[in-house]
Amino acid sequence: MLLNYKLIIWDYNGTLIDDVGVSLKIVNIMLAKRNLETITLERYRDTIDIPISNQYNTLGFRFEEVDFGELAHEYNELYSQLSITAPLREGVLAALQTIKAHNVSQAVLSSSKLEVVEAGLKRLHIFEYFDEIAARTDILASGKTDVGEALFQKLHIPPEQTVLIGDMLHDFDVAQTLNCSCILLENGHTSRALLERAGTTILKSPADLIH
Q1: What are phi and psi of 23, to 5 degrees?
Q2: pTM, rounded to two decimals
Q3: CA atoms within 13 A on the CB side of 88
Q4: What's 7-18+87-210's CATH class?
Q5: pLDDT tens digits along 101-149
Q6: Residue 100 and residue 53: Cα distance in Å, rounded?
Q7: Domain extents for the chain?
Q8: Residue 53 and residue 68: Cα distance in Å, rounded?
Q9: Pseudo-torsion of CA 206, 107, 142, 37, nearest 10°?
């Protein structure tokens, strides 16, 4: 499915790394700390959004009472502590190895902070599979369209020869802006029902990418 492309762009959270459980735990810690109702995994996947401030607003955080920057800092601190046990998604390594063996370029595009993404890729022993790591310089998870545009300008690979793989509607929106193809994976941070709104290919697992 992927080997006809010249560039494959991977999202990080929920696509390469199986960290949705970590994110759910952190959000519930933050909610409980402020006496707000905690949520299930299903509720998390149905409300996830980029910018992440949209989800926080939906879940009951009131920015007139708590600064969003404070929430972002709190999340980032907890993520640094708890994500060290989050594994690769099943099937990712085989997909990366197959793609590399066919000399197709691979990159990472993330809304997360660059240092966090690079540290995770190194911990998971997959850093060397990527020609470029493109992510934010802040912790606000405000989106990655601009980061993706900068990545395209640097690599000079035509959009029609590129596919973006992600697990959120934001990944599809970014792909639309960049005029490249998009494949979405379920069982990440977003519910299947939300992903279906994109009207693009949805696969259950990274393993399905190379079959």
Answers
A1: -65, -40
A2: 0.95
A3: 17
A4: alpha beta
A5: 999 999 999 999 999 999 999 999 999 999 999 999 887 877 899 999 9
A6: 36
A7: 7-18+87-210, 20-85
A8: 7
A9: 30
